[in-house]
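Continuing from the previous page...

OK, I double-checked the sequence for Short-chain dehydrogenase against my notes and this is the correct one:
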Amino acid sequence: MNRTEDLGIGLAIAQRLLNEGCSVMIADLALRPEAEATTAKYPHPSSHDGSPSATFHKTDVTNWFPWEATVKSFGRVDIVVNNAAAKDQVDAAVGSYHTFNVNTIGPIRLAQIAIDYWLQNHEIKGNLLWVSSMGAYIHSIQTPFYFASKAAILSVVKSLQGLKQLVGIRNSVICPGPTRIRDYRPQYDNGNALEIMMVGSKEAPVIHQKEVQLEALYPTASSMGAGTKAIDFMKMIAEKGMRSTC
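Thanks. Re-ran it with the corrected sequence; updated structure tokens here:
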């Protein structure tokens, strides 16, 4: 994967997906020049049958029409990368926290839409990748809202850890520090958290990578263990979808 300091995490992931043969909808407030170069390299619709393509849809995370636009453009959605992030300005309006709207509420709502879509289209094996932050594990009085917003995402991913086992939807999160990251791996798909941090120096970087299994957080059993109602609940979701009122 290319250096994220040159591309940004989202664009680096998009380029990797395109290189692997996936078509990509880039949803953002605007396209930066490097993203424009990517869409120009992979025009949509593709000039060759079966070739990957990329297109852009101007998106505010409070607006969900891009999902419909993506399905209309490509026919189906197999992978969702929840990568939006922001911080509030010092003069932000009282009572409105853009950090939580963009970093937390938006990704959670997109995940709900994606999961519902995959439950209605069982032939598609969904893949949900969240981008949180090492800030989800640490605390600072300087940026408490940002760290809290990322910690909330980590908690949601762990709460959804039964998706693959019970309905076949892969679900995982990466927690990068202020550094470039490697691409995510196929085995990270069941509520795992992948922590990545660059140590050393910019001239001689060393990538430290650690996978945190969800089960490590529980002394004797995972949250899907015997004695919980989680399995019955997920079976109901698998059978009836998220739209059931039962």
